[in-house]
Amino acid sequence: MTVQLGIPQVLGNRPRFEGLRDRYGRVATDLRLSLTDKCNLRCSYCMPAEGLPWLVKDAVLTAAEIVRLVGIGVDSLGVRELRLTGGEPLVRADVVEIVAALRAAHPELPIALTTNAVGLDRKAAPLKAAGLTRINISLDTLHPETFAQLTRRPFFDRVLAGIEAADAAGLGPIKINSVLMRGINDDGAADLLAWCLERGYELRFIEQMPLDADHGWTREGMVTAAEVRELLGERFRLSPDPRARDGAPAERFEVRRQDTDEILGTVGIIASVTEPFCADCKRTRLTAEGKVMSCLFSHEEVDLRELLRSGASDAEIASRWQDAMWLKPRAHGMDHTGLGAADFVQPDRTMSAIGG
Ligand SMILES: Nc1nc2c(ncn2[C@@H]2O[C@H](COP(=O)(O)OP(=O)(O)OP(=O)(O)O)[C@@H](O)[C@H]2O)c(=O)[nH]1
Ligand SMILES: C[S@@+](CC[C@H](N)C(=O)[O-])C[C@H]1O[C@@H](n2cnc3c(N)ncnc32)[C@H](O)[C@@H]1O
Ligand code: SF4
Ligand code: SF4
């Protein structure tokens, strides 16, 4: 069950410090902010086929509230990069205005967006003009029927058009996120990599995590990072990318053909389940309704919207945000790693409602 933490419940005696520190010595500098819980796809590993009521309009942070919170993060709490996500951030009608306002306030801040690319064909150029730095796009398959099966919507062509538009608009380096589901799209992993390499996109395979609405995830059923390396190894040769990982979820590999030394590009593997990276986590999250989630799997949420709307000062909001992050769990919402362990409890929220 999710616990809403208010100020009195939060540690009253945490040490005073700068920035978003936690009890395990980590410092969050990477803010992931959800613009909406709504989505126009229904990926089976994230949302239910039907249902899941949206937040009411008043509950969602306004553009001005978003700009204020990001300002507090950047100016007072050491946030150094921002990712806009969702739900599907492009379904928000004011997404371009939000990016423009954030860019005006923070000329040097890297601002990235994670999207399913439906509607991006029309929005890529305006987003670039508004100041978006780069974009990550989800694409699990190159087969329209498999796409429709996985996302429960027939929008494959629209996604391809969106990817092309993002590339043409200069929103690179374009990263493609792909979740492999056993028996559905795992046989297309090497084809998807070849397709991305030809176009200069960086593909990343993500291990499926237990954040689906249907609670259908099992540790045995998911496709592991080791299996991904094996699947790709049938056609390519992977070797560790010498660049520093620097706390990034993705472990990168250089990709070569079996018979040559020429590097064709890189591929990433985000192994949240089998090779977790929680010890180096730099992330803090804000949900679309302004709650801090210190970890993707947090069972505690700390409300900043209520403070915003009750006239609190920037310093009070910053302090509450620090309280929330001080309580960040060590890993996977617990004091140890273990998605699928006996004591792991899946959060009430789906990935779409957290902000993936
Ligand atoms: N367990 C875990 N997984 C995460 C976390 N952040 C991102 N991921 C996973 O990584 C996937 C890709 O995230 P993106 O939104 O593309 O961002 P990113 O990989 O952090 O961004 P880049 O800076 O472009 O590499 C997400 O869909 C999640 O599955 C995190 O804090 N914890
Ligand atoms: C929640 S979505 C939000 C942004 C946008 N709608 C999209 O799909 O890119 C962000 C990322 O989360 C990933 N994701 C969703 N559910 C997941 C799960 N259960 N396990 C791992 N990744 C998941 C998606 O593949 C996507 O790349
Ligand atoms: S993964 Fe993204 S596109 Fe798919 S249902 Fe979740 S929020 Fe929507
Ligand atoms: S599971 Fe939590 S602690 Fe681990 S990397 Fe993700 S957000 Fe960070």
Helix-strand blueprint:
Layout: E1 3-5, E2 20-21, E3 27-28, E4 30-34, H1 63-76, E5 81-85, H2 95-105, E6 111-115, H3 120-130, E7 134-138, H4 144-151, H5 156-169, E8 175-179, H6 189-199, E9 202-206, H7 225-233, E10 236-240, E11 250-257, E12 263-270, E13 283-286, E14 291-293, E15 300-303, H8 305-309, H9 314-326, H10 351-354
The structure holds guanosine-5'-triphosphate, S-adenosylmethionine and iron/sulfur cluster (SF4) (2 copies).
Characterization of the model:
Catalyzes the cyclization of GTP to (8S)-3',8-cyclo-7,8-dihydroguanosine 5'-triphosphate. GTP binds at residues 32, 83, 114, 175, 283-285. Belongs to the radical SAM superfamily. MoaA family. InterPro entries: Aldolase_TIM (IPR013785), Elp3/MiaA/NifB-like_rSAM (IPR006638), MoaA (IPR013483), MoaA-like (IPR040064), MoaA_NifB_PqqE_Fe-S-bd_CS (IPR000385), MoaA_twitch (IPR010505), MoCo_biosynth_MoaA/MoaC (IPR050105), rSAM (IPR007197). This is GTP 3',8-cyclase. This protein has 356 residues and is α/β, with parallel strands linked by helices. The chain has a single domain, classed as Aldolase class I (TIM Barrel). It contains ten helices and 15 strands. It has helices at residues 63-76, 95-105, 120-130, 144-151, 156-169, 189-199, 225-233, 305-309, 314-326, 351-354, and strands at 3-5, 20-21, 27-28, 30-34, 81-85, 111-115, 134-138, 175-179, 202-206, 236-240, 250-257, 263-270, 283-286, 291-293, 300-303. It has a 13-stranded mixed beta sheet with strand order 1-15-14-13-4-5-6-7-8-9-12-11-10. A two-stranded antiparallel ribbon has the order 2-3. Helix 1 (63-76) packs parallel to helix 2. It is globular and about 60 Å long. One iron/sulfur cluster is lined by residues 39, 41-43, 46-47, 86-88, 116, 138, 351-352.
